[in-house]
Amino acid sequence: MQDDHAPIWLPRLAAQGGPRFLQIADALQAAVADGSLQPGDRLPPQRLLAAQLDVDLTTITRAYDEARRRHLLEGRGARGTYVAAPKVELTAVLDLSMNTPPPPDGVDFDDLLKQGLSQVLMRTDAALLMNYHLGGGSDSDRQAGARWLAPMFGSLDAQQIVVCPGAQAAIAALILALTEPGDVILAEPTSYPGLCKAAAQFGRHVIAVQADEYGMVPEMLEQACHQHQPGLVYLNPTLQNPTAITIPEHRRKELAQVAKRCNVGIVEDDPYWLLADAPPPPIATFAAEQVYYISTLSKCLTPGLRVAFVLIRDPQERERFLTALRSFALMVAPLTAALATQWILDGSADGLMDGVRKEARLRHRMARDILAGRYSGAGDGLHVWLELPGYWRSSQLALAAESEGIAVTPAEAFVTGATSNDPVNAIRISLGSIKDRGRLQKGLQRLSHLLARRPEPFGTAVV
């Protein structure tokens, strides 16, 4: 432990090194990591450090607050501020199962959140933020939605956009608004589990349509439309969850043509489009009146906003959708909707999304290096679909991984129905849910070692 009269710790600050409070917090973290500062060492009083570094006191206060957030420091009242003991990890589980965005590279998310909320509270009547909003989003929210969707569609009429409390709510409302009990919904053989759960809850039936390496097969879709007279087709065409397949443009056009010929609507659930590297135009650009397009902020920014934008061209269908939505989700929380709008309109969302995109690609490179020949990802997005060696079954591997402190999602969680396709034997690995990159590396390495071993015969544990 450092003596209280030991020489003062001083970080080096660079003129072009970014915000000074972050430089100080980063220097603290580096000093703890390399042993220059030890648990129990006393930090300089804030005023003294401010004077030594020739910065204002607020900068030091923000730096110490950031270091506390990182669990580097602890206060001991009048005795001062000390380097904290290492945080004990109460759970050993390395979660590779939840498809959430990684912490954005080069972005101080806490600061962004504080600034965004401060702007919202300064510019908006607090009473409005705590009241009912029944119109599927304010005019400003819809304008923000139009800007969010501009990379996909160019200029849009904001009145065609409905603001929803997340993509799951949007999917459920579309099912209620556009289908009847007993109707069939067509989807790919492996698809988003939330679709099947919503359909089952409402008494609809999901039937799988054969897919290949380019996604749903148009000829099989047309055949299924004639056979089942579906109420809707569900597609997740960009970096599909879970297979990470992106349907190419020519296939998207063919699927749009089938939908027109068969007069069936398509729910285009497209949460990863803005994370993808040069994605094709949405299917909705080829069948504007036939497709209901959903884009959520949960995968590109943060799930906590609970905001998604739905593009519905027809005003009557839009009103039916709103009626269905209000039956179970009256509105988006006004405070988070206002924050999302603030971030989109002031450009903060673009910076946050760039940070998520950069971090996701770094993590894909890590997964490719560690998983070697088994990696088959696209290099972007939030997940990898890992086909397994024949000696492992997906549910068996998931259980074995769990016993070693790793959570992954087996293929069975995504199966929508039987087709002529061979049963899939794979797991989905989500790269964003582990906040720390070092822990992610540890989880992927542990998983790689597990994949290289053959499963052990089942036996009874003796303790």
Automatic annotation (TrEMBL):
It comes from the Bacteria. Gene3D superfamilies: Type I PLP-dependent aspartate aminotransferase-like (Major domain), Winged helix-like DNA-binding domain superfamily/Winged helix DNA-binding domain. PROSITE patterns: HTH_GNTR (PS50949). Residues 18-86 form the HTH gntR-type domain. Pfam families: Aminotran_1_2, GntR. InterPro entries: Aminotransferase_I/II_large, HTH_trans_reg/aminotransferase, PyrdxlP-dep_Trfase, PyrdxlP-dep_Trfase_major, Tscrpt_reg_HTH_GntR, WH-like_DNA-bd_sf, WH_DNA-bd_sf. GO terms for molecular function: transaminase activity. Transmembrane segments: none annotated. Keywords: Aminotransferase, DNA-binding, Pyridoxal phosphate, Transcription, Transcription regulation, Transferase. The keyword Transcription applies. SUPFAM superfamilies: PLP-dependent transferases, Winged helix' DNA-binding domain. In the C-terminal section; belongs to the class-I pyridoxal-phosphate-dependent aminotransferase family. This is PLP-dependent aminotransferase family protein. It comes from Comamonas resistens. The lineage of its organism: Bacteria, Pseudomonadati, Pseudomonadota, Betaproteobacteria, Burkholderiales.
